[in-house]
Amino acid sequence: MNPTLVFAKSGLRKPLLLALAAGFAIVFTVTSYAWLRSHPGNHNFVPSIISTKSKSALAATAWNETLGFSKVLYISMPYRTDRQDAMNLLASMSDIKIKLILGVDGDSINAKAVPDKADLRASVLGCWRAHADAWRDVIDNNFETALILEDDIDWDENIHQIFHDLSLQMQNNKLRLVKPTDHERASAPYGLDWDVLFLGQCLDQAHPDHRDLVQIYDDPNVPSRKDTQKVFLDQMESLGVEGDDVGKKRLLSPAYGPACTMGYAISRKGAQRLLLNLSYLGLRGPVDNDMAWTLQDGKIRGYTVTPPLFAAWRVGGQKDSDNYTPNPNEAMAENGNRAGLSQNLKSSARVAMVGQLAMDNWGDYVRKGLEAKANT
């Protein structure tokens, strides 16, 4: 029997039929999406009823509390509560939610747990272990992507807009080797064709044979030439950005020789490959060096954003590093946060938050009293 005729005989009209159909579609879509979230290996089998979001709508997820990633993690030694205070304050002022991954004292790592070939001093080994713990957290929690930060960084006060613009570029990525899947088009604002996305390197170099692989785009939040370190000016020039374009353009290119791990994103597959190559199969050097060597070996795939989106915050003195034995002849902090600085950013979020939270309570009372007298 035709179900439409049954509804018609019952007195139901076309609007109700459409509403029932729409409701069924919504339930099916939500159920399908929930199934996909719990089966991350089946993204190639996205039901056709799940519509692809517009690129602008997907880029808008950069305005959420995780910048469009599944999670934002940051690494900090247990005793660096000063840096943890700073990171929580900075994140709250930027509407970002962060999760702490505790740093590791290298001396606490049992000799049996040290990866093969790893002949490293304790502090360097501890740094590797903390990052490896972050990778494990991504795998254990089945995060599709995660942004991993260190605790001594700064970012631009317009960070959400910067990641929004980056998302649009990565959705229109001309450097991909494979086409985006339906799942990526629907749910991955930065794509998923990478293992590591380098966003906070302290230097970088492009593959000498692939300098043509670069995507250059406008970004109103790019630092000026004077605020950009020479190492990045040289990197940009080698990839075709110089002259008046400096301070206007940002670059996306295949990662090849990045150093430092101040800020980078990983996919779940990337976390697995990093644990494989930088733990299970051995460790050849400091974590950032081995990540670069593994990129150069072609065993992981990544992209680099230049100039970087995260920068080191420096106050001078011993507080600037946890990787070296304290020097009794060196000041604990030469400048302090009041005179701290970062480079490669147009508008420091750390500097901005001091002004945003500034208050002159008693001065406000005086001004209010003067205004009251003037009005009477």
Automatic annotation (TrEMBL):
GO terms for molecular function: transferase activity. Pfam families: Glyco_transf_25. InterPro entries: Collagen_mod_GT25, Glyco_trans_25. Signal peptide: none annotated. Coiled coil: none annotated. Keywords: Glycosyltransferase, Membrane, Transferase, Transmembrane, Transmembrane helix. Residues 71-174 form the Glycosyl transferase family domain. The chain crosses the membrane at residues 16-36. Belongs to the glycosyltransferase 25 family. This is Glycosyl transferase family 25 domain-containing protein. It comes from Lipomyces starkeyi NRRL Y-11557. The lineage of its organism: Eukaryota, Fungi, Dikarya, Ascomycota, Saccharomycotina.
